[in-house]
Amino acid sequence: MTEIEKVYQFLDEAHTYYLATVEGDQPRVRAFGTALLYDGKLYIQTGKVKPVSHQIAANPKVEICAFKGGKWVRIAGELANDDNRDVKVAMLEKMPSLKGAYSADDDNMQMLYFKNATATFSSFTEAPETVTF
Ligand SMILES: Cc1cc2nc3c(=O)[nH]c(=O)nc-3n(C[C@H](O)[C@H](O)[C@H](O)COP(=O)(O)O)c2cc1C
């Protein structure tokens, strides 16, 4: 398994992760659950109308934290917008429940992928492991 696949699998199995953005000097954090590995890139999904999207547009630096089975991962990096229709379709196919709120052709559905990312896996019992992608 490649390093980015390990990160993706962890997020997928954790189901829920917490995405932090910055708004001026104020951190903002919220629960997220979308994750997709597509074309070698790790994507998350949101709506362009949401404050989180506006915050990322103003400052693409984000951090994610997820916890699963005694381990946690923190992913720090930048998110880049990708309006490729195929990746939106792939996200909707993976998580069909999104179809209630989004479609590949609306002006809202947003796919964002990680750039310049560092993921650190930690636990109370093992040394931290860092991967970059
Ligand atoms: C378990 C869970 C998973 C969620 N996953 C997502 C997600 O992947 N993308 C998304 O845009 N919102 C998701 N949400 C909803 C956001 O947390 C919510 O819209 C939040 O208000 C967005 O942040 P904002 O208000 O700063 O824009 C999820 C909520 C929960 C409880």
Q: According to CATH, what is the topology?
A: Pnp Oxidase, Chain A
Bound molecule kinds, no repeats: flavin mononucleotide
Order of helices and strands: HEEEEHEEHEE
Radius of gyration: 14 Å
| Proportion of residues in helical segments | 10-25%
Number of helices: 3
What is the strand content? over 45%
How many structural domains are formed by the residues?
A: 1
What are the low-pLDDT stretches, counting only 5+ consecutive residues below 50? Answer: none
Shape: globular
User: CATH homologous superfamily, by name?
Assistant: Electron Transport, Fmn-binding Protein, Chain A
Major β-sheet annotation: 8 strands, antiparallel
Distance between the termini: 14 Å
What number is the mean pLDDT? Answer: 98
CATH class: Mainly Beta
Structural class: alpha+beta
